[in-house]
């Protein structure tokens, strides 16, 4: 992995702990929202109490009802084997559902999953496409990661000027990681 790729992975890991904070629920129906919210809160309580198996079950059920933050947390738990077996396919599915619902966290986590140590080489292409789509959807953090991919030519052609431009735009929109990357590079 090149220097910029390592920076992208470090930036991803830096935001991951903040993803466990409660976010607004995004669901379809009022009755479903209520049930999903209850399951999410239940999962949060179990997680805080250290009952990871029950927390994972609650987040899984809330995710199945379309609760986007529950999908992010369920994906993280399955990715790391918290409360059950490690299962990157389940994590990928949860992050994909979250990302498709417009969650920047879900998109970043899905892209990061494709950059893991045990990811196949073609996964850089998939991660780049996810970050590119997130950037097109207006997610500044995705633009930062996509910019890093462009700088390195990771998962596609190298486009240094475009990559630096995206990172600068992200920094100007308040994305601290993008500013740190620019400051660290002296650009």
Walkthrough of the structure:
The longest helix has 20 residues. The N terminus is likely disordered. The chain starts with a helix and ends with a helix. With 187 residues, it is mainly α. Helix 3 packs across helix 4, helix 4 packs antiparallel against helix 5 and helix 6 runs antiparallel to helix 7. The chain has 10 helices and no strands. The chain is 71% helix and 0% strand.
Kindly provide the radius of gyration, computed on alpha-carbon positions and rounded to a whole number of angstroms: 17 Å
Q: What letter string, H or E per element, gives the SSE order?
A: HHHHHHHHHH
Shape: elongated
Q: Which structural class should the secondary elements be placed in?
A: mainly alpha
Number of helices: 10
Average residue-wise pLDDT = 80
Contiguous uncertain segments of 5+ residues:
1-29
How many E strands?
Answer: 0
N/C terminus separation: 22 Å
Query: Major sheet: size, sense and barrel closure?
Result: none
Q: Considering DSSP H and I runs of 4 or more, what fraction of the residues is helical?
A: over 70%
Strand content: under 5%
């Amino acid at each position: 992995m090149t220097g910029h790729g390592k920076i992208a992975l470090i930036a991803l890991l830096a935001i991951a702990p903040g993803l466990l904070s409660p976010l607004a629920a995004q669901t379809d129906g009022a009755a479903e929202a209520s049930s999903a919210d209850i399951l999410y809160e239940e999962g949060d309580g179990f997680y805080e109490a250290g009952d990871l198996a029950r927390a994972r079950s609650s987040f899984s059920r809330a995710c199945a009802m379309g609760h986007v933050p529950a999908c992010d947390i369920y994906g993280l738990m399955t990715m790391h084997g918290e409360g059950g077996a490690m299962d990157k396919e389940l994590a990928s599915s949860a992050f994909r559902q979250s990302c498709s619902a417009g969650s920047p966290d879900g998109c970043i986590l899905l892209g990061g999953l494709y950059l893991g140590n045990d990811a196949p080489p073609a996964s850089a292409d998939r991660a780049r496409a996810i970050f590119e789509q997130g950037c097109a959807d207006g997610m500044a953090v995705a633009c930062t990661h996509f910019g890093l991919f462009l700088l390195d030519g990771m998962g596609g052609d190298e486009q240094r000027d475009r990559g630096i431009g995206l990172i600068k735009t992200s920094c100007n929109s308040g994305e601290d990681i993008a500013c740190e990357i620019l400051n660290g590079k002296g650009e």
